[in-house]
Amino acid sequence: MSDVDFGSLDLAELAEVAADCTRCPLSGGRTTVVFGTGDPDADLMFVGEGPGAEEDRQGLPFVGRSGKLLDELLAQEVGLDRSAVYIANVVKCRPPENRDPEPEEIAACRPYLERQVELVAPRVLVTLGNFATKLLLDTRDGITKLRGRRYAWGDGVVLVPTYHPAALLRGGSERVAEARADLVRARLSLMEDR
Ligand code: URA
Questions:
Q1: What is the pLDDT of residue 11?
Q2: Burial environment of residue 162 by CB neighbours within 10 A (0 to 12, 13 to 18, 19 or more)
């Protein structure tokens, strides 16, 4: 397992490897590996934190309450259905009781996300919440400080950090308005020439 060359795998092969993954203790508690879903050629990719209970049951990301809100905001602010984007998480297995993923778990799962981003090769990456944003921007700053602007990321990719939908469900209308503005940033970035 540890000698898998992630860089040689396509998305289907990567998903197969993930389905049997035991790189971290989260594998012991999962029902299903939540690898990722959507258009493998999407221009827009979302990265969340990790599966919750419903995602663990169905094997798909963002299918619970947070996902419903994400779908709504995506349709209203970007004009896209979830089938037109690619959605993945920082960790592919559900942390027990929905606790935060541990640094070792994030590190163990990181090669999957890195290869997913490489293969989907989105033009715009939207990170949802602290874990995805800190990992992909390689920073210790929090989402409140980082959101509200676009970042140049890698080779011509625009990264737009925003709140996690679960934080929006808790956080009230001001946060939702800020997240809407972030998604407009993503939409404008998609409309711009590279
Ligand atoms: N929260 C996440 O970060 N990801 C999911 O897939 C579901 C909820």
A1: 98
A2: buried
Ligand 1 pocket (Cβ < 6 Å) reads 34, 48-52, 55, 61-62, 66, 89
The pLDDT of residue 154 is: 87
Q: Is 89 helix (H, G, I), strand (E, B) or coil?
A: strand
Q: What is the mean pLDDT of the chain?
A: 96
- pLDDT tens-digit readout, 11-44: 999 999 999 999 999 999 999 999 999 999 999 9
DSSP secondary structure letter of residue 133: H
Q: Are 23 and 49 in contact (CB under 8 A)?
A: no
Q: Which residue has the tokens 């997913």?
A: 116
d(CA 109, CA 20): 13
Ligand 1 centroid from CA 175, angstroms: 18
Rounded to a whole number, what is the distance in angstroms from the first to the last CA of the chain? 38
Could you tell me where the DSSP H helices lie in the chain?
11-19, 53-58, 65-73, 103-120, 130-137, 143-146, 165-171, 173-191
Percent of the residues in the chain that have a pLDDT greater than 70, as a whole number: 98
Nearby residues of 172 by Cβ (< 8 Å), 6 or more positions away: none
